[in-house]
């Protein structure tokens, strides 16, 4: 109970700073990009020609690329799950207005909502994927929810979002670079700007953890270590296809992203290193014995994961997803 009360006190203490975080890390609605800025304008007389050009450019992208893009899109489309989860975190309340934390979650959600929207419309117009299968997987993922191992603990949730937002930044950025190399400037630009949003969000959540470390170093270090012991799972870890069971598609999707080089085991390690460095975990002092052991664990973990990753292997065969046919042509 003491730990729970301490977390609530810290969230209340930080709350006055949240409005400033929104100004620093989010963009006003009237200034930020919208999906229609990138997609063919259906009111334009040249709409069909623009769609035809989009479809032609899409033909140059391979099977693993389409699977990864579909998986990324479904992950973004499951946003209702992420918002409802964060709204239930201790210290974030919709009932106790004004609550700056709930305003942050809604504003963050509003920015994130555009990602799945633009990618979904692009997939639909591209003609390269089975949209009904994609939609079934999306509905399953929202219906199945997720368990990221954070419960209602704000410390653990902010560690998770700090990590996961940077992971999605890396994934979208690399997909964008691959699209550009294949001559698909439109998709490349879309993925790059999405990656920029994810980076801003990462910087915000990273700052939340930094401030909490100043208020409650013991609790924050213990929460960080606990999350890393459980491993940071991606939001789509319950991903499935039609007729499949919970989570059966995620491993194959992850193998595809690893094979393509979009998000790898080394990226996971590099993110941990960056978080350790930014939060100065090695310099945190005045810790309890338990928290000091947790700090030492966090500092040694990257090297340990490096050794493990050297022994890891991933299937080279392409798993046959219902979303995309073997040659990327339906």
Mind sketching the topology for me?
Layout: H1 2-14, H2 18-25, H3 47-58, H4 63-77, H5 79-87, H6 100-126, H7 131-144, H8 154-181, H9 185-215, H10 217-230, H11 250-260, H12 265-278, H13 289-310
Helix pairs in contact: 2-9, 4-6, 4-7, 4-8, 4-11, 5-6, 6-9, 8-9, 8-10, 8-12, 9-10, 10-13, 12-13
How would you describe this structure to a colleague?
The protein has 330 residues and is mostly helical. The protein has one domain (2-30, 58-310): Ribonucleotide Reductase, subunit A. Helix content is 66%, strand content 0%. It is built from 13 helices and no strands. The protein has helices spanning 2-14, 18-25, 47-58, 63-77, 79-87, 100-126, 131-144, 154-181, 185-215, 217-230, 250-260, 265-278, 289-310. The chain is globular and about 65 Å long. The N and C termini lie far apart (56 Å). The model has no long low-confidence stretch (mean pLDDT 93).
Mean of residue pLDDT values: 93
**CATH-derived architecture:** Orthogonal Bundle
CATH fold naming: Ribonucleotide Reductase, subunit A
- Give the CATH superfamily: Ribonucleotide Reductase, subunit A
Helix share, percent:
55-70%
**Strand proportion:** under 5%
Distance N to C terminus: 56 Å
Main β sheet profile: none
Radius of gyration: 21 Å
Overall morphology: globular
Number of strands: 0
What is the CATH domain class?
Answer: Mainly Alpha
The ordered string of helix (H) and strand (E) elements is HHHHHHHHHHHHH
Low-confidence stretches: none
Domain count: the total is 1
Number of helices: 13
Structural category? mainly alpha
Q: Can I get a quick summary?
A:
The chain is mainly α and 330 residues long. Helix content is 66%, strand content 0%. The longest helix is centred in the middle third of the chain and has 31 residues.
